[in-house]
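Deliverable D5.2: sample structural annotation.
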Amino acid sequence: MVLNGPRQAGKTTLARRIAGARQGTYWSLDAPEARAILARDPFGLLEAPPPVVIDEFQVGGDRLLRAIKQRSDESRTKGRYLLTGSTRFTTVPTLSESLAGRAEIVDLWPLSQGEIHGGHDRLIDLLFGPQEAVRRAKAARVPRAECLRRVVAGGYPDVFDRPERPRHRWYDG
């Protein structure tokens, strides 16, 4: 699986949690040691206990993607690799391998308001649920000023609860 999304949306945090919860292996290609292993033997990264999470995988280039393709063709076991990156790797001109038919691409967006304020998002349940649930949700409406404050704050994990000025500086950066 390829977990794609904008920088600072929470991909690394989620990937580390998945690796930890499943006793897998986490590699970051931002780390010199992981890049050194990749340079010597790209299969070396892939032989670790699954799921093998490779953060910023696009840094590994064609060499890494071809190794993943080869291992995927040798064994069609699902869930062995989780690749994360901020780049739409299929549009990178130096990468010739798309992992078509071998990897599902999932986009991770910033947190929704339901995730930030309620722990989960119930919008779909409300829209397709009983009318009474919709009426209760309307009665518990967020005041307009608070709604606007939330929209301006956004859903990036590092900034939604920051005061206004530091949040603006973060977005400007």
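Annotation notes: Residues 113-172 form one domain. The chain has a mean pLDDT of 84.
The annotation will be released with the project's public dataset once the embargo ends.
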